[in-house]
Design brief:
Layout: E1 2-7, H1 12-21, E2 38-40, E3 46-51, H2 56-61, E4 67-71, H3 72-78, E5 83-87, E6 93-100, E7 115-119, H4 122-131, E8 136-140, H5 147-151, E9 156-161, H6 165-169, E10 172-181, E11 183-187, H7 189-193, H8 199-213
Parallel strand pairs: 1-3, 1-4, 7-8, 7-9
Antiparallel strand pairs: 2-3, 4-11, 5-11, 6-9, 6-10
Length: 214
């Protein structure tokens, strides 16, 4: 039976809507009071796993799920051994460098050597500043990254930005975009190669749905 790993949070509704369009209904995950983390599609064709976003590629990489939906940002950060199949065109955001609005730094290159940069995206941040040949200290944080510059712990942050409202409300401003991110369909490489559970047809159906909605 096909198993699909679905991300909790902002990508869930659109993920379920897309899967419904190709005949897989996991909408029970959206029902108020539902605490199930694994459900079977009403047709009995597939199972859905509801997991934290960062865990989606782990379940796919280790073969507990043949398909998964996750943001490109996590694929860039974690570099899991999965097949990236389709840009699903929702969940748009960007990974950016931000500083205090009142800061004299107008570009990442303005940051002094050995500045501190707070981020959840440690690998992406490190790779970016290495590409600039700028030595900085990456301070790993798991939440409230905006507090880094506010408290003086860091000169800048590297974080996901959607509307920019959180930055503005905390007196921060973007000075560089590292890359754009959207939701991606991923697959277990061997399962996709062997076309387990007719994966190829399902993936092509999703591509067709996305094209028809453009």
């Amino acid at each position: 039976m096909l198993t699909v790993a679905l991300p909790k949070g902002e990508l869930l509704k659109n993920s379920i809507r897309l899967l419904q369009s190709v005949g897989l209904d996991f909408s029970a995950f959206l029902e108020a009071g539902n605490r199930q983390l694994q459900i079977t599609d009403a047709s009995g064709q597939a199972k859905g796993l509801l997991v934290r976003g960062q865990d989606v590629p782990v379940y796919v990489e280790y073969g507990q799920a043949q398909l998964g939906i996750i943001g490109y940002d996590l694929l860039r950060e974690k570099k899991p051994q999965v097949a990236q199949l389709v840009d699903l065109q929702f969940g748009g955001c960007r990974l950016s460098v931000a500083v205090k609005t009142a800061s004299v730094y107008k570009s990442p290159l303005d940051l002094p050597p050995n500045s501190r940069v707070a981020s959840k995206y440690v690998n992406c941040a490190r790779e970016y500043f290495q590409s600039l040949d700028l030595q900085v200290e990456i301070v790993p944080l798991s939440g409230s990254v905006e507090l880094g510059p506010i408290t003086g712990m860091s000169e800048a942050i590297v974080d996901l930005v959607s509307t920019g409202r959180t930055l503005r409300e905390n007196g921060l401003v973007e000075i560089e975009v590292l890359y754009e991110s959207t939701a991606r369909l991923i697959a277990h490489p061997l399962s996709y190669r062997l076309n387990s559970d007719n994966l190829h047809q399902l993936v092509e159906s999703m591509r067709s749905q996305l094209l028809s909605s453009v």
